[in-house]
Each structure stands twice: as structure tokens, then as C-alpha cells.
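Lesson 9: reading folded outputs for more than one chain in a single document. The general rule is that every protein is listed as its sequence immediately followed by its C-alpha cells, and records are never interleaved. Here is the first one.
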Amino acid sequence: MNMPPNADDAARRAYWAEQMEQGYAMVEKLIAFPVEECGERFASLVDAAAAANVEMLFSSSKIAGDLDRVFHMRESLVDDVVTIGREMNERGWVLKIEDGFRSLEMQGQLVRKPVLFDTILKKCIWENGGEIPPVEMVFRRAIVLIANIPKIGTHMSGSAIDISVFNRDDGSEVWRGNPYLEMSERTPMRSPFVEPEFIANRLAITAMMEAHGFMHFPFEFWHFNKGDAGAHILTGNPAPCRYGPVNWNRLTNDVTAVADPLTPLNPLPVIEKEIAAAMKRAGVTPLIPSRRSCSPRPPSGPSPQACPSGPPQAHPADPALSPSAGVSSRRDKGR
């Protein structure tokens, strides 16, 4: 028997909020995890796949603005990805790399990308019962959905890829319930709101990735990483990880650790301005909600409290920012 629409929506909201808080708990673990940056250089996934005669695809979309995607990662990980690509070819699949390394500039712009920021805001409004959420709540969700702190973003470590998979015979996508990328209660790898046959596809792809050490980020079905804090946490390895956020010089291939990996790429005042901009794009007068007590940044002390729903100073949301306006973006996102 199907749930009444209101009950189903409540269940989806509850699951979404639960997953976001679990994601935030993961962020806190990432913040605290020890990193001993090894300085390993980068290599090209495109060149390696061509040299190995492995059929792979690479996204042609921009990551943000005029910034091209960078299909490079730590050189010792490239062979593993090519091996996975070869095994997928043998299975009748083609691995598509949607995204690879991101510089701090790329990641910071990605957080502010209108289509993505509008989606985050829509989901926060939906989670918040149709009211404009506190700034801190949007900041908190943005940290989970699009890493806003270098230390938690494994793309900035050169140790992560976002992927899709296609069939070799007809070019159709091996369907995972939604395209890359989706930002909803269907996004977590094992979401109960995704059909079983599509969960099976997600898990089959994940098994091939994890057989070579690329662990899946539980809250995004397309994201896999290896050798960094996230992978160590997910595999229960307490040893310091080799890969942390780095600045990479593409001309010299020199790698240097980010000096302050805990500084948010977009601090609270910037997020506040983005909320106002999103409201303006929706054609309404920007209304900035009062700041609440929930923490905008994972502290070194006790865990922050989640932002309460339905803050008394919040304003009703404009229909243009309701979830029905759309929450899926096909091209850009990720940690």
C-alpha cells in the first residue's frame, strides 16, 4: 500500500535531514583526521587511458564559469582507474569520468555556481517546512553537499573522481536511478527511495571501484576516492593518510600542501550574499533570515547542534524556490 502524499513527503524530508546530519558527522571526522601529505605528483587520466587502449569517456562540460574540468589525479592512482576502465570494457561498459582534480579556486566557484547554490537553497527550504532557512543551515548543508572546506574535499586532494557508466553496445547509461548529478533524498548510495534495480546497478559499479581501493562516499552515488582521509575513515584505517588538499602547478607538476586547509572557501557572509542572490534570481525581494546558533564550521570541540526547523524569524519561501521547481542538476557538483 502506498503512503499518502503528505506522509511520503515527510518520510523523504526526515531521511534527507538524517543523511545530511550523518554527512556532517563525517565532515567532523574528516576535519580531525591526520594527514601526512606525501607530495606525490599528478598524471593524466586521458593520456593513460589512451596509452592503454582502454575506452573511457570524459565530461565536456565546464565545472563553473569558464573553468574546464581537470582530468588529472595522483599518479599512483591513475593506473588503478585505467584498470577499472578495462574491466568495465570487458563487462560491456564504458567508464565516464565526470570530474577529477579541483583547485581551491574551482571548488570555491563551484559552491557559488547559481544552479547548484539555488538547488541547495531549495532543498533547505523544503527541509525547513517551506520557510527560508537560517544562513548557518545553508552553510552547514553546503559543507556536506559541495565541500566548502579544503580538508574535507577529496577532489582538492587529487584522490577522487566522479563517475558515470555507459553500455558499450548502444551508448545508453547504466542507470542508477538518477543522472550525475542529483541532489535529493535519492542521492545517497543506498537511498530507500531509489528503485531496487537501480540500487543494484549502483552497487555493481561500487563493487568494481572498491575492488581497487576506491571507496564510495555514502551520500553521493557517483563519488569515489582512495588514499585520503575519507577512504581511511570508511575502511577503519587510523593511520595518517597520504593525500590532503594541495596546490598543483600544472606546468611543473609540483605539489604543495594547502597552507590552511580548515579555512572555508566561502565564509558565512559570502553564503549570506548568495542566499540574497538566489532570491533575486527567483524574482522576489531578497530576505536574509536571522542568524541562528547552529555552527557554520566544524569546531574542534563538541559537535554543533543542528539548525532547528521552522525558525521563528524565517520568512515564507517564494514558490519559485520550492522543490517542485527542480532539484537535479545534470552537470556540476561534488566533493
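And here is the second record, again sequence then C-alpha cells.
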Amino acid sequence: MGLFNRGSKQDVPLTGEEWSTNGHAKGGHDGADRTEVEPQPTPAPDPEREPEAEVTEEQPATEPTPSEPEETPEPEETPEPAETPEPEPVEAESKPKPPVNPPEPQDGDEDRLTAQQAIAPVRRPGSGRPPGAHIGDESERRAKIISFANQKGGVAKTTTTLNLAVAFAESGHDVLAVDLDPQGNLTMSQGVDPDKVERSMYDVLVDHIPIREVIQSREIDIAVASIDLAGAEIAMSERSLEKALSAVVDDYDFVCIDTPPSLGLLTVNALTASDKVIVPVQCEYLSMRGLVQLQNTLEMIRENLNPRVRIEGILPTMLDSRTIHAKEAVEILEENFGELVFKSRIRKAIKFAEAPVRGSSVLKYDPQGNAAQYYRDLAKEVLTNGAS
């Protein structure tokens, strides 16, 4: 029984369920005979022979299975994987699509051209300009831009700006007057209340609205001012007016700019945009002292902002020929500035004070008077050859 037990322990792990599959019984003498054979070195080859038997038995079972995979390549399912590689060349076509982008650079080129036109537009007399473009030289546009400047107040800057502009218009020219004085005297002189305007030059210089939106037609076209201009210098640059005027420089023959009585940023804007400067000077000693400072300011603007600006002429105003002091003042001007002094003289006249009350120029208020003739003579002098 001890031998039988040993044999049974060896039979179980070696054979297990395989003895039952081969038809061997687990009981009696058969187990004894096997135990006698098992101590021999045959147990090692037994597991090798067993898989061979299994393989032989499995081969007939697998014979029907290969027939099935043989049928799988036979049906038309095989061309279906052949169709699957077809989208691969489609993907290959989609891959070269990103580099092939002719329409996109074409659109970019168009944008670049428009940007170049905005930065450096082709300027021709009578042609429009994009907003913000530089106005260029006089030969490249229609309008001549004239500023009336003197940091001394009460020298007839506004009176000269309005009446000379109207005299230009009487000669058949299209004229725009620009009021850059926060006091709005030029605006009031044309019958417009600066306190009631909806938009003014403040909105043009600070909010960058088109200057055409603040132009009103009276005896001449006038870009109106308001008291808000007093705070415009905080939010504007030296070229704000130049950029604004670029949209209308081909619509007018002359642009006349009235400046405030200072050399602040508003006056610098006017000088930066101008071709010429007319300096009204009251025939008094204190009024003439500011001319040297104005000349220094103009020299700085020529060097840094506007090399084309120059003094068109110095205009003696409010001249009272009955006084010796007035005559001496004119002599001092001519000695120091020579040909820059206009030959025309603007003498004192009560009509200059009465005309703004009626909201008109002196040429309209008293067209046959001496006061109107003073500015007609000045217009002829400027139109011919200036002060020289």
C-alpha cells in the first residue's frame, strides 16, 4: 500500500485529468502496474509524448479551421482593406494643403498695400487722402495753410484771420477758417455760439472725429471752437491738427488758422501744419517784444516738426498814424525785420469792433468802408508775392 500511495501522488500531478481522457481507470491493478513503470526514468518523456498525442489529436480538429481562414481571404472582404489605404493618399493630399496657401498671402498683400497707402499715400493735387496722412508740401496739394500767431493778446489775430479769409473768398478762392482759440472769438464773429455747438475742434483733436463734422458754412467755411479746447492740450500730440487737415487740404485753396495768445501745444499744432505764418503786431513796444520769442519757437519747429514753415510777413495792426509812438514802432519793425514787414497797414477803425456783434466780417458789414479796403489790399499783397 505504501508503494501504491507513492504512485498515486506521482500520478496526480503528472497526469491529472489527462489519464481520464486517455481511457485509463483510476482504480485497482492498472494503478499498480503503472506504479511499477513510473519509478523508471520514463516519467520525463511522458509529458513530452502527451503533448505530441494532444497535437495529433488537435490537428484533425484544426483541419476544419484552416478551411475557414482560407474562405476569409476568398470573399471580397480583402478589397475592403485595399479601399482603406485609398484614404491614405487623401490624407497625403491634405498634408500638402497647409503649405499651399496662395489666397492667404494674396489677401495679406492687399492689406499691406493699403497700409502702405495709409503710411505714405500718393499725393496729387486734387486727390483725396486717407485720414491721418501727412499733408505734404504745397506743390503736392491744393491748399496753402496760413497760421496767424502771436503770443501777445489783443493784436487783432482773430480780426485778421476772418477778414483776410473773406477777402480771399471775394477773389474767387475756396477758404476754410479754423478756430483753435478756446475763447471761440472767430466762431462768434461768424454768428455761431461756441457754447451751443455739439462738436468742435476739441473733438477733432482729441477724439479724432473727421474735421468735416465741425465745419459750418457762413461767409466762409469755419471749423468751430468751444471752451473745451482749453483742456485739449493734455490729450493731443504736435501733429493732431496736421492729420485732421489731411482730409480737406484738396478741397480748399486756403486754410486760415486762428491761434490762441500763447505758444502752447495748440499753437505748435498750427505751426506744424502750416506753410506760412502771418504775425499781426500792434504798433506798440510791448507787442513787438514777443516777436523774438516767436522766431525762436518757429526755429525749433523747423528743426523738429515742420521744415517748410516760414514767416510770410509781419503785419502792423491797430495803427494810429496820429501818434508819434505808432510811427516809431513801425520804423523799429522795418529796421529789425526789413522785407518781412507787409506794406499794408491795418489802421484803427470802429467798424472792426461793430462787425462781430452782427456776426459778420467787416467786408460784409461795411463793404465800402476803409476797414474793408485795408484787408482787400492785404489779400492782394499776399496773393502776389507776400511781404517781399
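What the second record shows: The mean pLDDT is 76.
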